[in-house]
Amino acid sequence: MSSPIRFETFEGEALFLDPRKDFQQTKESFHARVDPLTGRTGHFSHFGAIKPQRLDLDCYRRPEVKGFCPFCPEAREKVTPKFPEQVIAGGRARRNEALLIPNLFPYDVYSGVTIMADEHVVSLEGLSETRLTDAFALGVEFLKRVAAFDDAPPYPLITWNYMPPSGGGLVHPHQQCFATAYPGNQYMDELRASQRFYDAHHMNYWSALVEEEECIGKRHIGRLGGSHWLASFVSLGVLGEIMCVFPDLFSIHDFEETHLHELVSGLLRIFAFYRASDIYSFNGALFFGPSGQNCFSTHFRIIPRTFLNTRDFAPDPNFFQMLLSEPVSVVMPEDLCCGVKNYF
Ligand SMILES: [Zn+2]
Q: What is the pLDDT of residue 239?
């Protein structure tokens, strides 16, 4: 049976007289793709024009740059908040170095921050299996716990800004975990489209997606246990996007220790690829579907972030992302897949 998933691409070329070639006529290609689930589009152009910029991590350790950090062990106890006793007994939850506290600037009723390490500056290499497992485990435990409360919002998320190019306000590694009724337009578009796909085709889009991608082979990076790692057909990040799909998991309650290990194992491979590619910063988000459905699978997205240069620190989003709500990528997903595959 042929798959109902369609991968649509629109390619085009622009003609101009190129000053780099004595004003001879030159063609430059671009293309737009349509996300097979949501119908949202994304552009691909400027191929190779944006290179990830090296970050000087030692600079972030210098006292005049570091300033005051509320997440460093000497300040943490005094200046970070505690949960009410009924939410977390003792106010904060710990697992080795990882510490879960409430977000001082909450996104919703139950809004936590996980400080991932004692160290202020942790390189990608320092994001070890233990640190990653502990941080995600605290976030998942917290979200499972709040899901049982009567006033629990329906959509749980774990999000992560790593290093300043990602928009992270604090260098000290931390993740956000929160449940909300307003998980963002990307999440809601995916959720509604997953339901429509299920109603129309009587199958789960996410299972069909990984099956089709595995069959096509160009964007399927690998499989770790029940998790499938893909280069997204439409990249939300300028330097491409990798997605990890757990097709058989639907709500936070399905997510167990073994899935956590699969997620961490994949992330360690991606970080090895990032290190080799001079990528120092990223955004990540783990989407859990609401309870009581079987059409919206748990998935994780990760995109590299970079300054465009370290002369004037131009950020990587521009009018496209900010005002047109249109992602632009300078990396083709198929090329990204080839590069990352070596690490899986
Ligand atoms: Zn710190």
A: 96
